[in-house]
Amino acid sequence: MSYPPDPNNPYSQPPQPGYGYPQQAPPAAGYGYPQAAPMQAPMYGYPPAVPQSMPGMVVTSRVLLFIIGAVQIIGAGIILIGAAVTKTVTDRARDSYESDPFGGFGGAATGVLVVVGIVALLFAVFSITLGVKFGQGGPAVRITTLVYGSLGALWGLVMFLGSFANKVNPAPGFVFAVMWLAVSILMIVGMSTRDGVAWFARPRY
Questions:
Q1: How many CB atoms lie within 10 A of CB 43?
Q2: What is the largest CA-CA distance in the chain?
Q3: How many CB atoms lie within 10 A of CB 159?
Q4: How far apart are the first and last CA of the chain?
Q5: Cβ proximity of 50 and 198 under 8 Å
Q6: For residues 145-158, b (16+ Cβ closer than 10 Å) or e, as one string?
Q7: Mind listing the pLDDT tens digit for each residue in 102-128?
Q8: CB atoms within 10 A of CB 93
Q9: Is residue 54 within 8 Å of 196, Cβ to Cβ?
Q10: CA distances from 38 to 35, 41, 42, 130 (A)
Q11: Claim: this prediction has a pTM higher than 0.85
Q12: Distance (Å, whole) CA 205 – CA 198
């Protein structure tokens, strides 16, 4: 028979582990049925569903690109006609006076108008081509349209501020600038919506 150790007796044996009733080990982690890991929601929410058809705002942006291209073609035609008229008037005046009565201004104006008309034609081709690519284009088309709309909004703002410089009749310039701003903002919104992003990010086979 053993006795419990005396703490005052230096010759007594040290206490043995497990003295008395046996100690039960703490239950191991995960004892019983295994615990399922908690479900975590995606960090950025659920991914947008792939649209089966072109969203409405994307269709609107596409139509606006075609309209802008048509307006640019008309504007380029008017500018080039103006360049031709300027050249004709300058040539006839030179033939009549045997010198340039405009002091070279007619020729310079003709050159500037031709350059502006060609640039307008190039922008028209770019606008229409961008609209055509909405059907099969990827994220690059969306980003290009977004940048194009942003530059258009900036140009519309410049026209809006410049319309106040016309003291005679600022209404036409003001209305055109507001319309241009509205079209550019609609394009930006169409490319920035969730459906627009999903349309251009969809898989293409």
A1: 5
A2: 144
A3: 17
A4: 87
A5: yes
A6: bbebbeebbeebee
A7: 666 777 888 899 999 999 999 999 999
A8: 14
A9: no
A10: 9, 10, 13, 47
A11: no
A12: 16
